[in-house]
Amino acid sequence: MQLSKDFLWGGATADFQCEGGCDEGGRGLSTHDFETNGSQENPRAITYRLPDGTTDRARSSFFFAEPLPEGAVPEMLDGEYYPSLKGVDHYHHWREDLELLAGMGMNVYRFSICWSRVFPTGFEEEPNEEGLAFYEQIIDTCLELGMQPLVTIHHDELPVVVAERLDGWSSRETIELYLRYCRALFARFGGKVKYWLTFNEINAVRGYASCGTHQCDNNTHYNAVHNMFLASARAVALGHEMMPGSMFGAMFAFSAFYPATCKPEDVFAQMQKRRQAYYYIDTMARGHYPAYAQEIWREKGIDLRWEKGDEGTLAAGPLDFVSISYYRSNTISADSPRAKEVMGGEGNPYLENTPWGWPIDPLGLRYVLNELADRYEKPIFVVENGMGAIDEADENGYVEDDYRIDYLREHFKCMMQAILEDGVNCFGYTMWGPFDLISLSTGEMAKRYGFIYVDMDDMGAGTLRRTPKKSYYWMKRVIESQGASLWEE
């Protein structure tokens, strides 16, 4: 069993988790810069100062984000560690990192552009040349090394000035600023980049760090997402106009969801749960809200701020392909208090978990690829997948990560079966964090995903030396054989 030669194998990163260089190249502050480190037991937070001078923190983790009080201004406080300021110093190691990835045989590299590196406040009339030049050298080097650049335009962050002046994506003015940003990227990189993602995990973002909104209630959130939908559609239309032949997707966090039992109530709860994920993909891939959106708005008390022309805007910019992150599966019970959460669910007694409690379900990847292919009839790109684990490096930085090899082997096999046996049009795969980087969910370095070990601890100490792990050489063989080696082991 072997994939075609044009299948895209690669790795994926986000600027605020790896880049660093936050005070270099004219970069402005970004919302994630104010996010502390954390752990599985201690959630990450946005730190802020109130008008009376007191300071505090608000939880910032995805859909569990807490609101910022009225008058709160984000501030970096003494005694806190802010991982995004340093990342893993990709800003100064980018060439080494790219050469290591190309050395595995990768032919695509997904990375995000930091909006505030290109437009430091978000309000400038012209882009920051140093920022554009930084990303252009990454793109040019990718192409020289035989890797297609896959660019994420908005990866869960925005300039902090946009968040403070406009309340981020709560405002339609943010759409116009985003389109100015897109236009600058398309004008500069249009002849070099074919694949673009307008937004990352748009179904999982909420609150200040990801959306720039000070409040996290459902009405604020769904209206902010509506503005993102409009921004994405207009960006797709603009991109097709400026860059004929370009392909646009948006990335969705997509787990497999199973009914906890065959009890009809559990099966129906699973259907309702799945619709909460479909809500985002249906709207962006089809160019209109699904009929069941009305029920979601009613149930959650959403007063969606429609304006004349919104319907036409959505229809004019549907996605060319669907891209997903896949890490886990969940079970859904009608009796569970988490059944109504967008991403919530229960574990599965038939599956093992990662050290961070995520069920390991390779067959679930095949399941969701078929599910998406049947529903949307569009090409699919798996742009995140992988296993966060505690790696023990020897004195040379080498890691015997057989657990990662086992995880990826089974997921790759299921992906290949979906493509070659089930007929799914999946044209690429990028593993999350091909070199170790900061965990988004916990802010740790201890939660490592990479094929390449980066010598840095949770507080940013270390040599930053890059060392290929055992999985690096294993993955090189997988790519060289277009997956055939998986069936020989």
UniProtKB/TrEMBL annotation:
One of its GO terms (biological process) is carbohydrate catabolic process. The active site is at E384. Pfam families: Glyco_hydro_1. GO terms for molecular function: beta-glucosidase activity. It comes from the Bacteria. The keyword Iron does not apply. One of its GO terms (cellular component) is cytosol. InterPro entries: GH, Glyco_hydro_1, Glyco_hydro_1_AS. Keywords: Glycosidase, Hydrolase. PANTHER family: 6-PHOSPHO-BETA-GLUCOSIDASE ASCB-RELATED, GLYCOSYL HYDROLASE. Belongs to the glycosyl hydrolase 1 family. This is 6-phospho-beta-glucosidase. It comes from uncultured bacterium Contigcl_1738.
